[in-house]
Write a structure and sequence with these properties.
The complex is a heterodimer. By secondary structure, chain A is an all-alpha fold. Chain A contains 13 helices and no strands. Chain A is globular and about 70 Å long. The termini of chain A are far apart. Chain B is built from 9 helices and 20 strands. The longest helix of chain B is centred in the middle third of the chain and has 18 residues, at 179-196. In chain B, strand 1 (13-22) and strand 2 form a beta hairpin. Chain B has helices at residues 51-59, 103-113, 118-131, 136-139, 149-161, 179-196, 207-213, 231-236, 241-246, and strands at residues 13-22, 25-35, 40-44, 70-73, 76-77, 88-91, 167-171, 199-204, 216-221, 224-229, 251-259, 265-269, 274-277, 288-293, 299-301, 311-322, 326-332, 339-344, 360-365, 371-373. Classes of the chains: A mainly alpha, B alpha+beta. The A-B interface holds A 188, 190-191, 193-201, 204, 208-209, 212-213, 290-292 and B 59-61, 82-84, 88-90, 92-94, 96-102, 105, 109-110, 113-114, 159, 163.
C-alpha cells in the first residue's frame, strides 16, 4: 500500500493544472483571507452610516465619499499627490546615478549593495525618530551650521515640508536604487561598445542605449516609490507635525482618534482609485514610447 | 558600395612595437605588423593569446601602455582616440544588436550618429540588408529577439558595412552559429571582402576558418605573433612547434643536425635512425633540431617494403581510425610520441586497409616534406 504522500504525488504527476493549483492555493488563501476580505469589509463600511460610538450602523449612504470633496480634504489630497510625485522624481535623480555607479562598482559592488540595504535592519520608525535628532532646532545639522558660522542662529527644519520630503526620500530611496541597479547590472557591456564604435559619444550612448534598456528598472522603481509614498503617514506624522498632513495621516486619524471608520474607509478607497488611475496612465505612456524617444 | 579610396597609400593598419599590460599580465607584448588595403587579415590563436586585445586596441576600447608603441590607422596615430573618433566598424562576438531597436533602427544607428541625411538613411539601410541577403521588407521591422542566430549575424554585419568603413573588425563573429551555416558565411565574408575592397581584420581561434578566408594570418601565442604569412606559408612552413601543432596536425621528431658527405643535411633521431632533410638556415652542425611532418604527407608500409630514398621510422600499429574522407593510422614509435598517418579512404568495404592492431609497420615520407622548426 503506497503512502498518502506517494498517492498524492502519483495523482498530481499527470495533471499539470492540478499541480499549478496546488502551488497557488496556500499563498492565494492567505491573500484572500488577510487582504481581499478586509478590503471588502472596508468597502462595505465606506458606504454605511457611522455608528454613534464608532463602528457602523446598518444602512447605505454615499455621504462619506461626498464629504471627502471638501476643499479641506482636497488640499490634503493634492499635497499628498504633489509630494509623492516630487519624492519619486528626487529619488530617481539621486537613485539612478547611484545605481549606475554601483552596477559599475567592480569588486565593491556587493559591499555597496549591502550598504543600500543596511537601513532595513532597523525599523523605519526608529530611523524616522533619528531624523528628528538631526533636524530639530538643537539638532546635529543646526549645531554644526552654527558652529561653522554659516548661520547665526538655528533654522527651523523640523515640522516643515522640507523635513517631510527629506524623510520620504530617505525612506524610499532604496526602493528606487534596487530595481534600477538590477536592470543596469544585466546590461550587456558589448552594447555600449557597439554604440561607441558606431559613433555615439558618451551622452548619446547613454540616451540611446543605457537609458532605454534600464527603463524596466526605472518604471519598477518609480512605482515602488510613488505608491507607498501616497499612502505613507509615519513620516508626515513625525517630521511634518500638524500642518503637513498627508492622506495617510487623515485615514489614520479617522480610524483612530476620530473613530470615523466609514469616512476613513472612503478616503482610502479614493486614494486607491487615484493610484490605480495614475499607474495605468503611467504604464500607458511608457508603452506608447517603445524603445527610444526620437 | 565601394570603400572610399583613402588619401594615404601606405598600410591601412600599422602596429609598431605595441604592448598592452593588464595589471601584471602582458596581454600584447611588443607586436609590430602592417595590414594592407583590402586584405583579409586573420589573427589566430588559442584563448588568452592576445588576439582579442589586439583587436580592441584597433577598435579603441583599449589604449596601448604609456610606452607601448603606436597604433596607426590610415597613417594616423590613434593611440588616444576613442572608438567614436575612429573611422572603423566592428562585428562583435555575440552580435551586440540593440535589443530595444528594430533591425532597421539597428542598421541605421551608425548613420544617424554620423548625421547622414534622413532621406539617404532609408536607402542605405535597404542596400546593406540586401548585401547580407536579408529581405528588407521581411526583416526591417523585426526586433533582434525575433531573429535566428544566423540572421542576427547578418544584421550585425549590415550594421557595420552600411557605414562603408575602410576597416572592418570582426571578433569571432561565426563562433555561435552551426557548422553548415558557418561554412556558408565564411565564403560570403570572403566574397564581401573582395567585392567591397574593405580591409577585414578577423579574430578567430578556428584554424580552418582562418585558412579558408584569409589572405594573411598572424598566428598568435603568448601575447606575441608566432608567425605571420599566407595560409600556405603557415601550414606548409611553420616556424615553431606551436604553429605546427595549432594549425593542423603534426608529428614531431627530435634529433641532431649533421652534414653528410655530399654537403646535404640529415638529422640523427634521438630514438635511433636518421632522416634526410632539405637545406634550411637554422641547420648547423651538431645542433639539436626538431622536425615536423604532416600526417597526410606520410605513408604506412610493411617494414621491408619502404621505398628507397624516403625517410622512415619503424613501429607498431596501435589503432586505425575511420574518419570518412580519410583514415588515421596511429603508429607507436619507440623514442617519440605516437605518429599519426592520414591515408585517403578508398573504401573500407571494398579495399580495406591491411593493418590491424599490433602489426609491425614503418612510417615513411619524402625528405622535402620535413618541416624544420626554428624553436621547440
Amino acid at each position: 500500500m503506497a503512502s498518502l504522500r506517494e498517492r498524492i504525488l502519483a495523482w498530481l504527476h499527470p495533471r499539470p493544472q492540478a499541480r499549478a493549483w496546488a502551488l497557488l492555493t496556500p499563498g492565494a488563501l492567505w491573500l484572500v483571507l488577510f487582504f481581499l476580505v478586509p478590503i471588502l469589509i472596508m468597502f462595505a463600511y465606506s458606504m454605511m452610516p457611522r455608528g454613534v460610538y464608532g463602528g457602523v450602523e446598518p444602512g447605505f449612504t454615499l455621504e462619506h465619499y461626498r464629504r471627502f470633496f471638501d476643499p479641506l480634504y482636497l488640499e490634503i489630497l493634492q499635497r499628498t499627490f504633489v509630494w509623492s510625485v516630487a519624492c519619486t522624481v528626487i529619488c530617481l535623480l539621486l537613485g539612478f546615478p547611484l545605481a549606475y555607479a554601483i552596477a559599475r562598482g567592480g569588486t565593491w559592488k556587493n559591499f555597496l549593495l549591502f550598504l543600500v540595504v543596511l537601513p532595513f535592519w532597523t525599523s523605519f520608525l526608529v530611523r524616522t525618530f533619528a531624523m528628528i535628532f538631526l533636524l530639530r532646532d538643537t539638532g546635529l545639522i543646526n549645531n554644526w551650521l552654527v558652529r561653522l558660522g554659516l548661520i547665526e542662529s538655528s533654522v527651523t527644519l523640523l515640522y516643515t515640508p522640507f523635513a517631510v520630503m527629506a524623510g520620504l526620500v530617505y525612506g524610499f530611496l532604496p526602493f528606487m536604487i534596487l530595481p534600477i541597479y538590477a536592470s543596469l547590472e544585466k546590461l550587456d557591456l558589448s552594447l555600449l561598445e557597439a554604440a561607441e564604435v558606431l559613433g555615439a559619444r558618451p551622452a548619446e550612448r547613454f540616451r540611446r542605449v543605457t537609458l532605454p534598456l534600464s527603463m524596466p528598472g526605472v518604471v519598477a522603481g518609480c512605482l515602488l516609490v510613488f505608491i507607498p509614498a501616497l499612502g505613507s503617514f509615519l513620516t508626515a506624522d513625525l517630521l511634518g507635525g500638524a500642518k503637513q498632513m498627508m492622506v495617510g495621516n487623515l485615514v489614520q486619524n479617522q480610524f483612530a482618534a476620530a473613530r470615523n471608520w466609514p469616512f476613513g474607509s472612503a478616503a482610502s478607497f479614493i486614494v486607491m482609485a487615484l493610484v490605480l488611475v495614475a499607474v495605468m496612465l503611467y504604464l500607458r505612456v511608457r508603452d506608447r514610447t517603445p524603445g527610444e524617444a526620437t | 558600395m565601394v570603400a572610399s579610396p583613402s588619401s594615404t597609400a601606405g598600410p591601412v593598419v600599422q602596429l609598431s612595437s605595441v604592448s598592452k599590460t593588464f595589471g601584471d599580465v602582458k596581454a600584447v607584448d611588443d607586436i609590430s605588423l602592417e595590414i594592407h588595403r583590402g586584405e583579409f587579415f586573420s589573427m589566430l590563436g588559442p584563448s588568452g593569446c592576445g588576439k582579442t586585445t589586439t583587436l580592441r586596441l584597433l577598435a579603441g576600447f583599449e589604449e596601448p601602455d604609456e610606452d607601448g608603441g603606436t597604433v596607426r590607422l590610415l597613417g594616423e596615430v590613434v593611440n588616444k582616440k576613442r572608438p567614436y573618433e575612429r573611422k572603423i566598424a566592428m562585428v562583435f562576438q555575440n552580435y551586440a544588436l540593440f535589443p530595444h531597436l528594430t533591425v532597421q533602427r539597428n542598421v541605421a544607428f551608425g548613420l544617424e550618429q554620423r548625421k547622414t541625411p534622413k532621406a539617404e538613411i532609408g536607402d542605405r539601410v535597404r542596400q546593406a540588408l540586401e548585401m547580407v541577403r536579408l529581405k528588407p521588407d521581411t526583416f526591417a521591422k523585426r526586433m533582434p529577439g525575433q531573429l535566428s542566430g544566423g540572421q542576427r549575424q547578418r544584421v550585425a554585419l549590415a550594421r557595420a558595412l552600411v557605414l562603408e568603413p575602410d576597416i572592418l573588425l570582426l571578433d569571432e563573429p561565426l563562433g555561435a552559429i552551426d557548422l553548415k551555416l558557418r561554412k556558408e558565411m565564411q565564403l560570403e565574408l570572403k566574397s564581401l571582402n573582395k567585392q567591397l575592397g574593405t580591409t577585414f581584420i578577423y579574430v578567430t581561434h578556428d584554424q580552418e576558418e582562418a585558412l579558408t578566408m584569409s589572405d594573411r594570418i598572424a598566428v598568435m601565442d603568448n601575447a606575441r605573433v608566432a608567425q605571420l604569412g599566407t595560409p600556405a606559408e603557415i601550414y606548409e612552413n611553420p616556424r615553431t612547434a606551436f604553429v605546427a601543432k595549432f594549425i593542423g596536425e603534426s608529428n614531431f621528431f627530435d634529433g641532431t643536425a649533421e652534414r653528410r658527405n655530399g654537403g646535404s643535411w640529415q638529422v640523427v633521431r634521438n630514438g635511433g635512425g636518421r632522416f634526410l632533410v632539405p637545406d634550411h638556415p637554422a641547420l648547423t652542425e651538431g645542433k639539436a633540431i626538431r622536425i615536423a611532418v604532416r600526417p597526410e604527407w606520410m605513408d604506412v608500409w610493411r617494414p621491408t617494403a619502404v621505398p628507397a630514398g624516403e625517410n622512415a621510422v619503424g613501429g607498431t600499429i596501435r589503432d586505425v581510425i575511420y574518419l570518412g574522407e580519410t583514415m588515421h593510422v596511429i603508429v607507436t614509435v619507440p623514442g617519440c610520441e605516437d605518429v599519426t598517418v592520414a591515408v585517403r579512404n578508398e573504401g573500407q568495404l571494398i579495399k580495406p586497409l591491411p593493418w590491424k592492431r599490433g602489426d609491425p609497420a614503418a612510417v615513411a615520407w619524402l625528405p622535402e616534406d620535413c618541416q624544420i622548426l626554428e624553436e621547440k
